[in-house]
Amino acid sequence: EAGTSAPGTARYLISFANRLVALRTTEGGAVYKQRGRWTIDGPALTNNNADWANTGSGSADMFDSEDDIQNGMLSQDTLVVYRERSIYHWNRTGRATAPFAISLHDSKEGLLAPFTLVDLGGIHFFMGNRNIYLYDRANRKSISDDDHDAIYFNLNYNALRRMFAVVNDRHDEVWLFLMKGSDTVVTEVWVWSTYTGKWSKFAFDGISPRYAGITNVSFANLSWSAATGPWIDYSRAWVPGDNRVISLGTAGGDVKQFDGGSADDNGTVIVAVWESKDFDFSTEDIDLSNRLKTLTRVDVGYISEVALTLLLSVSTDGGVTYSA
Question: Is pTM beyond 0.90 here?
């Protein structure tokens, strides 16, 4: 940072018009949720520090409405700033001291989940409050009318910043990763075909991982503060409190912890299985991409100090029966 006008931090930083633009800044400990700030005309970086203070730098507060900045993305020669319920355009003016013309272009819709915004060659795909849209700077087009209820049903609004979208250029698709209910990990992926305009759903439910071959270890004396007695009495690897440990669940409902100092299971076999999610191999929906219905490979890895038998079984009737 250089100069007293530099933002302390910014949630979004974008290179535009030969400047760095900081959106939703924190300055002097105060959060400015509707502010954009920019550096001097380029080169914006001098000695690895952006000049936010000298002639040509500045800031703007978009106070037309009270909603917060959610993200920003370039569309050709325009910086499109998405807020919670509105969309703004930043356009070049060519003037050194007032480089941007900032205008409100949509006051009826904004960006719901900040990281569902992706670029499709100058056209933006994003998840709005009411629908999924394509935005080309002139028009906002809904692309999820037929599937709206299913996409938005039971959406976890407390996890909006964890939801995201990615572009699969190879297959002309956009993948939208969502969290439903109280989940804080992805439970559904909605795939939109840029070629057909159709949606497909790929669910991550039904996963029940369980593991075997892990020693049952007491939770006592695992951290520095909890350990008692002289260090010389400890024969296994020391696990400091800030180190990650591997805890796994068994079929019997027990919690097992990996112990680097043990080489066996104390003579007790831990019976456990790992059950995958259900895969759809049907051909009922001709619009559903074949690659989402085909199981191409299963990798099973394990580590054992002694020989063991690994059985892989598959069920085609919803888990009623299995064949090896």
Answer: no
